[in-house]
Recover the amino acids of this structure.
């Protein structure tokens, strides 16, 4: 640095001395002229002055503020919350409703999946629900019949108890009363028998109601058999068509669809056979009720005969009353047993009805779950963005496995990148600094960006020699020309630095003495 001021000062020293003395030579010829060249004595201090001026000038230059920016390479990625990765929710055939580079908004249907397995499950559940409903209706009818029988049994038990109490009272009166009183007791006994006859008639009415209910059930079973036969015809027709395809060699004999039809036909035949057996059972029950009605009518005839026989003498009244009281006691026991049996039958019917209803609710819940699952097969967009998947049309109408990625929706107007800067630059970085991003493939275009996040963790670069800090930036991509995966350089515009500060930073980057 000292050589530059010396060279620059020599021309000025040559100009100064010859000005005045050379003009005085022709006028005065004394020999004092050489003595006047004393200014050469000031050459050395002048050089120092000029050197100082140069140094001061360089110091002033070092204080000049200049623009400074920090650059770092980055790879563009999509922004969290502004992207959607769509995968197959179920194994099936994919039908696309969008194409590559198409823009979508939340709620738009991107694709639908058709699952034959899901359809088969729904059909099976629907059949089981129909069977469960039939079982529930049958159980409810059985419950109604059991409740009717219980009410009749309670009524008959109450009547039998009243008759027993009346017989006991009559017997007591007959034993301590005169002949006239005994005759009146006989008349009361006849009235009691008539009351018993009315109770038996009520019992006949209950039996006739049971028989009518069984006949209604029989009609329902016959209708159900008719419906099952229609289903069997449909299945056998479909089975016959599939068998024809097997005979022609179009499908294999072990085709799952053919086997499912055969299983379905077998199940329908079994169910029809079970319903036909149920018809025979109901007919037997109807015959039993008819026999019970006849037996009860015979009991009425017996009671009527007893009324006619009550013309015995007074002496036979007490003996007859004792026999009648014993019969009444036995009759009460019988009716109590019938009431208990009817009550247990009601409890069993209630439990069976609850079980059938629970099974029905389970099947309906499963159908509801399958329907919700089917609704999920309509894949909708959850974010606004652009379809970035290439060659999307190759997946259309293809059968894909569950979990396979179909397409990606990305909001291209706002993309993200991670910029790595050296640790030494951290003191210049803050979140409000302006950022520009320039793709490597572009020559002119650059995009505005902003610092989204400064990660606090310091890492090593790929070489492992330098410590770097990662800064997340958000790039303004309104023209949607940038795509995820694109490489580029981000420039962070920092506050201005003095020249000496910038030079010292670059020097320390080249020679990091504190790392030695």
């Amino acid at each position: 640095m000292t050589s530059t001021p010396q060279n620059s000062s020599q021309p000025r020293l040559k100009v100064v001395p010859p000005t005045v003395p050379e003009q005085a030579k022709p006028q005065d010829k004394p020999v004092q002229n050489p003595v006047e060249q004393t200014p050469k004595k000031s050459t050395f201090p002048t050089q120092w002055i000029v050197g100082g001026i140069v140094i001061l000038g360089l110091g002033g230059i070092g204080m000049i503020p200049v623009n400074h920016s920090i650059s770092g390479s980055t790879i563009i990625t999509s922004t969290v919350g502004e992207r959607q990765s769509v995968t197959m929710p179920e194994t099936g055939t994919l039908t696309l409703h969008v194409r590559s580079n198409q823009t979508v908004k939340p709620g738009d249907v991107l694709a639908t999946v058709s699952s034959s397995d899901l359809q088969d499950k729904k059909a099976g559940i629907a059949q089981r629900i129909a069977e469960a409903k039939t079982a529930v209706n049958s159980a409810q009818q059985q419950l109604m019949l059991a409740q009717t029988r219980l009410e009749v049994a309670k009524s008959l038990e109450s009547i039998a108890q009243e008759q027993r109490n009346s017989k006991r009272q009559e017997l007591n009166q007959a034993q301590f009363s005169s002949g006239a009183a005994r005759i009146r007791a006989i008349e009361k006994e006849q009235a009691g028998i008539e009351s018993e006859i009315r109770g038996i008639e009520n019992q006949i009415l209950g039996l006739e109601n049971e028989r009518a209910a069984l006949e209604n059930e029989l009609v329902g079973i016959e209708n159900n058999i008719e419906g099952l036969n229609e289903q069997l015809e449909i299945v056998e027709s479909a089975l016959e068509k599939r068998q024809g395809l097997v005979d022609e060699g179009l499908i294999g004999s072990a085709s799952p669809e053919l086997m499912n039809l055969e299983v379905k036909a077998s199940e329908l035949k079994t169910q029809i056979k079970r319903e036909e057996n149920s018809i025979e059972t109901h007919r037997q029950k109807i015959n039993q009720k008819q026999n019970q009605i006849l037996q009860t009518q015979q009991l009425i005839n017996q009671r009527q005969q007893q009324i006619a026989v009550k013309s015995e003498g007074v002496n036979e009244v007490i003996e007859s009353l004792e026999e009648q009281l014993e019969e009444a006691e036995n009759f009460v026991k019988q009716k109590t047993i019938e009431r208990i049996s009817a009550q247990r039958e009601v409890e069993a019917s209630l439990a069976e009805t609850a079980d059938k209803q629970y099974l029905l609710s389970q099947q309906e819940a499963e159908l509801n779950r399958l329907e919700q699952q089917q609704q999920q097969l309509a894949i909708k967009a959850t974010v606004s963005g652009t379809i970035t998947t290439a060659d999307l049309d190759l997946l259309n109408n293809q059968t894909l496995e569950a979990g396979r990625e179909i397409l990606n929706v990305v909001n291209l107007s706002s993309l993200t990148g991670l910029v790595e800067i050296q640790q030494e630059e951290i003191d210049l970085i803050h979140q409000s600094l302006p950022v520009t991003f320039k793709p490597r493939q572009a020559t002119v275009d650059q995009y505005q960006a902003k610092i989204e996040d400064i990660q606090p963790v310091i890492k090593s670069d790929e070489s492992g020699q330098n410590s770097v800090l990662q800064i997340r930036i958000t790039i303004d991509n309104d023209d949607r020309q940038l795509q995820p995966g694109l490489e580029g350089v981000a420039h962070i515009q920092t506050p201005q630095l003095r020249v000496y500060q910038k030079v010292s930073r670059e020097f320390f980057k080249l020679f990091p003495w504190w790392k030695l």
Remarks:
- Residues 60 and 499 are 9 Å apart (CA to CA).
- Residues 1-43 have pLDDT under 50 and may be disordered.
- Helices lie at 3-15, 21-24, 43-62, 116-176, 179-247, 256-309, 314-376, 499-510.
- The radius of gyration is 56 Å.
